[in-house]
Every structure is written in structure tokens, then in C-alpha cells.
Amino acid sequence: MSDQRKDYGRRPSSQETGARMHAQYDRPYGKKPYQGDRKNSGTDRSYDGEPRRKKSYPDNGGYSKKPYDRNDKPYDRNDKPFDRRRGRDETRKPYAPAPVENERDEQPYLLIGRNAVREAIKSGRSIDRVLVTTEHDGSLGEIVTLARERKLVVREVDRKKLDELCMPFGHGGKTANHQGVVAYAAGVTYCEIADILDAAKERGEAPFVIVLDGVEDPHNLGSIIRSVDCAGAHGVIIGKRRSASVTAAAVKASAGATEYVKIARVVNISAALQTLKAAGLWIAGADMSGENMRAAAMKGPLAIVIGNEGEGLSKLVRDNCDFLVSIPMQGHIDSLNAGVAAAILMFEKKRQDAE
User: Is the pTM of this model over 0.70?
Assistant: First the structure.
């Protein structure tokens, strides 16, 4: 009994354990299921002992599609986007380029103020509609009456609505002074230089033209146009680039004179001066270094050139002038506003013509 218990509880020796382990691994390869190789995960053997085969993708559908490659097709901003819910949007418009310079001048703009709106209605200009406040005080009632006689659309709106429309044309964060009335009108119809010369011929007068070289402030432009109408000049020539155009602010500053003054818009001011010279006009440039306007000969056919508010006449335009004239100064400031200087020279020319 004691021997049997001793044999039952005896631990196997190291030789017996080693022989048992060798016998386990001496079996033929493949009989025992492949358990995988933890040390070499990249083996070419599958779990069933067969060589691993490369997976082949079907020709169509599934994984047959080629992965996206950004170099296959260049990016096109006009390409229509894809919407998963609705599919490709075929109605979406392509990318629109930025508006060209001065494109807003061709669009309808506002006539601001009572004088500008009244003169536009009297001249028969094409007006879309007139917006007025509910209180028709003073000359505002006259404007409403004239608009209804011409069968124009007149709408009464709140003053806050007019303030919002005129805000872009104000100064210092304040809205423009609309005086309770605003009109939507078509853009100004520019004319040609020949039209200005024909207007002088029809009136039987020597041509008198004002040329603006780089006047950028629309209020100065409107003031000059107003002085042109008052002085009896036949037209204004402005540039297309680096110059103010006839916008709502200019119409407001002109007090409606834009309805009666012919305005030509040219690409090259120097070329326009050559055209005026060929028509028999003398060219006088406004410059502080020029001759005193009282001593200068300004009678007859004449074109007065007004330069930029800060830099004055450009070098090329100055060289194309026949002579330069200046306004005598007596105070501490040696320069005038472009609109004021133009008005003084215009009426000096008319004074000399009357002598």
C-alpha cells in the first residue's frame, strides 16, 4: 500500500518529460492543425496548410474601382459638386468671376434729394419708381404731383428705409441727406466728344469744354457739372480709369445739372485733348505755376483742364496743354478745392468773352 501511494504521487523525472516532448514534435508535418506562427506573421502559409494565394479583385463592381488619385484630374472650380441626397446638381451655375472695374456704373442707381429728383422728372428721364416719405412738406408735394402727372410709380415708405438706401453715399458713418425723396433711375447716358462740339455749333457759340484729369471725388465732380451748367459751358470730359464717374453722389452734388450737361467718358485724356486741338480749341491747364488767369488769353474756343485733388495735372496731360493758368491767392493756404477752382476759371473765361 505504501509503495502504491508512493508511485501515485511521484513526480516524473526530467528525462521522462523530455522524451515525451520529443515524441510530440516527431509527428509528420501537417497532421496537427496549423496554429499560426506568432513570431513570423508574414508567412505565406494559410491556416489549412496550403500556400497562401493572392486575392483577385473582380473586373467590375466591388473593389475593382481604382483608388482616388488627385493627380488624375486637375481641380476645376467650375465643376459641379456632388450631393449624396440629390445626386449631381446639373442646374448650379459655374463659378462667376469677380465684377470688372466700374461695372456698377452700368447698373441702375439712385437719385437722391429733391432737386435731383425734380430735375430728372422735368427732363423726361426714364425713372423706374419714386420713393417718398409719408409727410409731403414743402417742395416734396410738388415732386409727387409731377411724378404722378408723368404716370410714374410713387411709393410712400418709412424714413428709415430711405436712410438705409442712402447710407453708402454718406460721410462719416452718416447717411446722405435724401430730404425725404429717392428715385430709381437708369444709368447716365454718356456721349461722345463730337456730340459736345455739335451742341456748341447748334447754339452758335465757340466751343467751351471742361476736361477732368483724375478727379476722384464724386462730390467734386457733381459740383463741377453744376458750375458747367451755370457758366454755360457745352460739356464735360472725364476719364474711365482713376476718375470719379457719375454716380448717385455726383448727381446729388450737381443738384440735377447732370440732366442738362453733356458728359463724355474717354479712355485716354491726352488723346481727347488732341481731338479738341484738331477741332480748333486751345487747351488751358489749371496749375499753380501757370500764368495769372486775368492776364491769360482765355477768349474764344477753349478747354480748361482740372487736375487731381492732390497731385494736380499728370505730366503727360500737362505737356499736352497749350498754356497753364493759375488763380491768384492772398491767404495762408495756397490751394483751392477742385470744384471751386474750376468754377472760378469758368466764370473768368466768360468774363473775358463778354469784354
Answer: no
